[in-house]
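PROTEIN DESIGN WORKSHEET
SECTION A - STRUCTURE
LENGTH: 223
TOKENS:
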């Protein structure tokens, strides 16, 4: 199980320090929530901030960019140039999904497709041989403080079955990542469903404990 801290929930006034704290705790996959104020109503950060984080953290951690933007087909290269190792794009926001995924891989990054809670698994199944990761949103993107949507279980189990079949046939292994409402009380359940990569925000970055202490609670839940 990869635990991917969502840096958006960290102290944005001292984002570099927060990311370094996560990496020091053993978290080497950083989830970067990019929002454009168009595809989703909120606005976060873009390539300049990511480039500064890459410079501050060096080449070690994986930068996982979740592009909640309407023009990913036109600007994904900017995120790769800024230091992102992985790019996930929303199926709902990309006009030519196969072409976009192929272009991202050819540009040198691993690639993922993201599904909103109401988007069926079939969309990801269409491109499953082309991706390294499927990101399942368990809340509606662009808003904080939402409750976990449990009906995503069916979608995850469908994808897990298809991925296992693809690997058994000699195809590409694919991670299932989930984002939204992941806490210590449900993370073991998510692993049982087939999730292999969990984006965790306030469960790691909060004022009640350090990232290392919160991570220990999550590891205990998984054990």
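SECTION B - SEQUENCE
RESIDUE ASSIGNMENT:
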């Amino acid at each position: 199980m990869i635990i991917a801290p969502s840096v958006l929930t960290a102290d944005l006034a001292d984002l570099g320090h927060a990311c370094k704290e996560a990496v020091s705790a053993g978290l080497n996959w950083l989830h970067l929530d990019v929002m454009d104020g168009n595809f989703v109503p909120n606005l976060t950060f873009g390539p300049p901030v990511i480039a500064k984080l890459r410079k501050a953290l060096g080449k070690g951690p994986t930068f996982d960019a979740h592009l909640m933007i309407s023009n990913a087909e036109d600007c994904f290269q900017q995120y790769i140039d800024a230091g992102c190792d992985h790019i996930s794009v929303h199926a709902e926001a990309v006009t030519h999904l196969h072409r976009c995924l192929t272009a991202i891989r050819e540009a040198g990054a691993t690639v993922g497709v993201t599904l909103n809670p109401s988007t069926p698994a079939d969309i990801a199944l269409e491109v499953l041989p082309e991706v390294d990761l499927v990101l399942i949103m368990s809340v509606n993107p662009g808003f904080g403080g939402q409750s976990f949507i449990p009906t995503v279980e069916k979608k995850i189990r469908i994808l897990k079955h298809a991925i296992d079949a693809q690997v058994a046939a000699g195809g590409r292994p694919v991670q299932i990542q989930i984002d939204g409402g992941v806490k210590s009380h449900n993370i073991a359940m998510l692993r049982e469903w087939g999730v292999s990569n969990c984006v965790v925000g306030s469960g790691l970055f909060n004022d009640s404990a350090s990232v290392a202490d919160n991570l220990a609670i999550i590891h205990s839940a998984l054990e």
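SECTION C - NOTES
Strands lie at 2-5, 29-35, 62-68, 86-90, 110-115, 133-137, 175-179, 197-200.
The two ends are 11 Å apart (CA to CA).
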